[in-house]
Amino acid sequence: MEKMTIKDIAKLVGVSTATVSNYLNGNLTKMSPVTQRKIAEMIRNTNYVPSSVARGLATNDNKTIGVSVADITNPFTSTVLSGIYEECGKHGYRVLFTNASSDASRETDNISKLQNQQVSGLIIDPVEGDSPIFKTITNRDAVMIDRQASQIKVDTVVTDNFESVKRFVSKMLDEEYDTLYYVSWPLKNVSTRWNRYNGFLEATGYTSGTHYLSVHNTGDTSEFVDQLTEIMEDNVGKKVGFFTMNGRVLIRLLAAMEFLGLEYPIDYGVGSYEDLDWMSIMKPGISCIHQDSYAIGTKAVEILLDKLNSKTEAEPRLIEVPTTEKIRASY
Amino acid sequence: MEKMTIKDIAKLVGVSTATVSNYLNGNLTKMSPVTQRKIAEMIRNTNYVPSSVARGLATNDNKTIGVSVADITNPFTSTVLSGIYEECGKHGYRVLFTNASSDASRETDNISKLQNQQVSGLIIDPVEGDSPIFKTITNRDAVMIDRQASQIKVDTVVTDNFESVKRFVSKMLDEEYDTLYYVSWPLKNVSTRWNRYNGFLEATGYTSGTHYLSVHNTGDTSEFVDQLTEIMEDNVGKKVGFFTMNGRVLIRLLAAMEFLGLEYPIDYGVGSYEDLDWMSIMKPGISCIHQDSYAIGTKAVEILLDKLNSKTEAEPRLIEVPTTEKIRASY
DNA sequence: CTGTTAGCGCATTCAG
DNA sequence: CTGAATGCGCTAACAG
């Protein structure tokens, strides 16, 4: 059973390759119903499948969208990817996957490679808000997700960071905390971290730069523990709470607190962005903000394919996907 | 700046396309050093990048490996994928991603699509141990990971399931448990679940079919809670322990126990397969088996590319990646 | 309604 | 050491 080509089935049916090609592309008006039927049957019998590679060469559009993610290991990201894949499948697109492992230079590399593979479109989950490579992408064939560039040059799909944190932290405030802290990876140039921080500031009224605590995602957390110690000492007798900007940061906080012999919700209160499965079985459960990662993926694809089909370049938009709250008992 | 082709740079340099092609493919002996230099320079100046699509058509090998995963949302799987991507990149292969969302028919679909996209090779993380589509894949261009087929027809890379569970459970036994239970998703035809169960049986000496508890990964867990209740009632005054076959199952168990008002390690002991970041911050920390998911990914790619390059079909092998133990205080 | 033909960008003989 | 010619599988005018 050799690999069939369009020529083979044309010969078998007794028509030209052009006719078969037309059939494959749905130009049914260009041939008689009999021919259609004969071609259809022959294709079924031979299990013929057109070569997407050849088609890609001929049409200069190989129906694949390239995805660059910052870190596939992040549970948020894998859910987004599943959304992307699902939506692409619905529209007959494949997905070419790349992962930067949180390394900006890897990302640059990945994106330029994707561009050179002549993908139809690009979906980028950026490592940081800025990168020279971003200058090379256009709003005609790309969309960004999760994190927004400092300058929005292409459509960007993010979760509702600012407002949802503002709302959530306001609720924490209702519990009469004396003081609240925002805990995050180093803010750097990452929009999600900043937007959540700003939502936090808006709710609390604190001034920027204060009530902010950063952890490094690398091994050593002694510095972080020291800062925490100081904060807790400064606030003896007061009610102090923390808002962590994602699940992994929350883990750092909890580990550090455990190390200090402190327990929530007694010694401190805590709430977090991101809703991970294990948060519900903590004792007590972690109150958090649930984001619809899957929808971010599907939405991004929808927008992208829309653009690809209507070759008109529009103004870049910022789409915010709403969140929900899971109130449990951690604060 | 139009898209350059091999013809363009051939013309610019003043040689034929064949020479440029030879240069691109490292056949440097076929041209003078001067020509090499001129071509090299021209390529640099024009930012020329050969079209992988065209090359794919011409060579009938488009340097992409297709990946079919059972569920990208599984933390295990995303780490594996990152390993796959990394190793592929090192060897100049791209990765075409597909996800079955734990649906066997989606998987069949995905794999047959990948086959029709003329990928160079296939890596499959199967939904179940058996599927008609597996008959269509050969050991020349595919490897399976994580779960093994009931009949090993292609090289398969898995974690050391049986032995590591056997060892781990033996240690639990040293703590003088009166009785131990294995908790799992329904065993079905999934090798990882069975192999871990068999390791459990080997260590405990129980007979197959006993001391086994299954949870469904769908919403309702009332049945599971009932079984648990019964077990705990049957064993009042005795020391009872549980081994969960992965992190998500552990979560179900913990949630159910919480519902019953029971606490580890007091009312029961627990250990688990899989080492997830949150397990260390549970109180007390969860003792578990740590598997090297990343290595599974890289290993799979290594084996696959090996096969692709040495077109000789060998006997399918089963490769087991070793695990390590994280002993904390949950039993 | 159907067939001819010329590419798409590159690799690969085979001559020179 | 170099180039002309041919083909990979398919699409897209353009004729008929």
Automatic annotation (TrEMBL), chains A, B:
This protein's UniProt keywords: DNA-binding, Transcription, Transcription regulation
Taxonomy, superkingdom: Bacteria
GO MF: DNA-binding transcription factor activity; transcription cis-regulatory region binding
Parts of the chain that traverse the membrane: none
Domain (HTH lacI-type): residue spans on this chain: 4-59
Keyword presence, Transcription: yes
Protein name, entry field: LacI family sugar-binding transcriptional regulator
Originating organism: Lentilactobacillus otakiensis DSM 19908 = JCM 15040
